[in-house]
Target: Undecaprenyl-diphosphatase
Amino acid sequence: MLENLDKIDKAIFLFLNSLHQDWLDSIMQLVTSTTAWIPFYVLIVFFLFWKFKKYALSILIAIGLSITLADQFTSSLMKPIFQRPRPCYDEEIENQVYNYVGCGGRYGFASSHAANTFALATLFWAVGRSLEERKKIAWTMFLWASLVSYSRIYVGVHYLGDILAGALVGAGGAYLIYWVFKKLKIKPF
Model:
């Protein structure tokens, strides 16, 4: 069964990775870059202080804990345990992979980019329940997390399975942090 899932994952990856366009390559290279999103993260900090005022700091701590949990769970635990090569290192398909940003670490299961972005989106959704704009904010954050995650397939460094597992880890980790903060009655949780 795992062998069949692996074949399906590779087929989906090769299809999605082959959809590249010259005009889109530089955009996806920017989307997949962590440092390119620094202005976006700064805007999030300002938004939190604008909307939540004195509670913004506790939200930022929860965000930091959620992202750290998601990142460490995928990078320090899952990747060494599963040791699934990234598509660009997979001897079976590496010659078919469109990769122009470098391959990164040898293992890709699960995607830390997906885990981190979905952790942020999930926590934003959870704490934003008191905001009128909650649906717009949630859709925007999950759309952003999906775009960043897809960019990892586009540049040839993750399978869809890596992305889905990372997204689940990120969302689950963020919800766990949210639940702990809520149980501890830390405002605004």
Observations:
- The mean pLDDT is 94.
